[in-house]
Amino acid sequence: MTASASGKLSFALECSLGGFSLQSSLDLDAEPVALVGPNGCGKTSLLLALLGIHRPTRGRIVLGDEVLFDSATAVRCPTEARRLAYLPQDFGLFPFLTSRENVEFAISCRPDPPARGERRRIAVACLERFAVGHLAARKPRQLSGGECQRVALARTLAAAPRALLFDEPTASLDVGARAEVRALLAASLHELAIPTLIVTHDQGDILALARRVAVMENGRIIACTSLADARRSPANAFAARLLDAPAP
Amino acid sequence: MKTRPPPDPRTLIFHLGMATCAAGFLTLLVLPFAALVLDGGPLAIWRGFQCALTWPALRLSIETTTVSVVLVVLGGTPVAFWLARSKWRSARWLETLLQLPVVIPPAVGGIALLLAFGRRGLFGGLLERMGFSPSFSPVAVVMAQVFVSAPFYLHAAVLAFGRLNPALLTVGRSLGATPPRLFFRVALPLAKPALIGGAAMSWARALGEFGATLMFAGNMTGKTQTLPLAIYAALEVDVRTAQALSLLLVMFAFGLLLALRNLDRQTDGKPQGAVLTP
């Protein structure tokens, strides 16, 4: 699996989305950060704004030394050139492709795609890393939720992303699959060491995956602290409940 | 032992009323097909097939509808993709305008085509100076067919592209897929079943096209006389010929519907609502 050195992901954005306004800033080092907050507070919108699907009205997004978006200088890097891999809650696998073809799709989208014959071998290797090599010829509808998520993770990482944006990576899984996927994900994130933002409502995800916790409220990130600090003095009542911590 | 309660008279009347309505309705819809197959007997129908009009008309119909459906798909797919993704108000207006040929009488379409591209039409002079006069030629047949059948494909395609899961497109782009790759490798395969269904409906409509063709292309054997026009011409001479040609069209259409139902079933068990709605 190729992970390119990417450095920090920093952003400060203002985005108005039909009556809702998003105003968030954060510096992400090459480590996983959990993004928590009640439903409708703008977590997914923030991911889409970082991806370039939503267009911020003002602000700046910088990845390493590359400016992805800057309203002041009218820089707007297209989504496909940002290489921020996005993993939605329902896995986002292409239903008409097999597991292997799904991964090959990501490989062929790399900026320097390997030769056609090579892609197949790399795709199978990616699937094997997530223990789904034997499911290479199956289509998503023939897979369980846990298997789908493994294939989706293999595909996400096969694209050689510079940062990762996960939207509730374990929410659609049953309890057993959740623990397995979480363990695999934790190991991969540790190895990759790139900026990663994980939207989650699950304490297990936060404890297993995240180094830091960013708390969102009404479109704003009101705190971003280490996991230990977040548990000791949570930023708001929601974070306190989520982390079983004493209310602030 | 329990005794069955006596039937509620209101329920009885309800069932009786429903059955009466259904019987009348089905008689009107099904009997004509039965007559088409049974009336006159197979021998008379077979003799009808051997009329001089049959083969040129059949050949012309197959050729022109094939060209038409290819043109509709090639031109309609990009238009539908744009219409489905556009948030402009003008796109909604254009969408409505493009659906117009479904609800206007085909003869009106024929007049419109004649006024636009006919020899004395708005653009006819320009076309003629370029050495091209489409009216009353096979080209006119194709133009009339495209005009009346395109909305069926467009409608299905706009619906299909509009229903694409936005998360899949976002994932594709986030993985690094450029817009052309996203279109050909993600959007088209996702929409494919509905697009095939729309193209089939469009083809069926082109095959049955009569009014606009008659107005704009005329009714010349071997040149612009398609099957529906040949039926019209045959009816003046021999009703069995008209019946035989009609049977031919019915068989085509029936086969098409069967194929579409199969296609519906094959598409991962998910309902593809766009396939059969015009």
What structural class is derived from the secondary structure elements of chain A? Answer: alpha/beta
Low-pLDDT runs of chain A:
none
Distance between the termini of chain B: 55 Å
Radius of gyration of chain B, in Å, reads 24 Å
Beta-sheet strand percentage of chain A? 25-35%
Look at the helices and sheets of chain B and give the structural class: mainly alpha
| The CATH homology group name of the largest domain in chain B | MetI-like
Order of helices and strands of chain A: EEEHEEEHEHHHEHEHEEHH
Whole-number average pLDDT of chain A? 90
Instruction: Indicate the radius of gyration of chain A in whole angstroms.
Output: 18 Å
Largest interface: A-B, 31 and 20 residues
- Tally of contiguous helical segments of chain B: 12
The pLDDT mean of chain B sits at 87
CATH architecture assignment of the largest domain in chain B: Orthogonal Bundle
Structural overview:
The complex is a heterodimer of chains A (248) and B (278). By secondary structure, chain A is of the alpha/beta class. Helices cover 35% and strands 25% of the residues of chain A. In chain A, strands 7-8-9-3-10-11 form a six-stranded mixed β-sheet, sandwiched between helices. Chain A has a five-stranded antiparallel β-sheet with strand order 2-1-4-5-6, covered by helices on one side. In chain A, helix 5 (145-158) packs parallel to helix 6 (175-192). In chain A, 48% of the residues are buried. Chain B is mainly alpha-helical and 278 residues long. Chain B folds into two domains: 6-38; 44-266, MetI-like fold. Chains A and B meet through helix 2 and strand 7 of A and helix 8 and helix 9 of B.
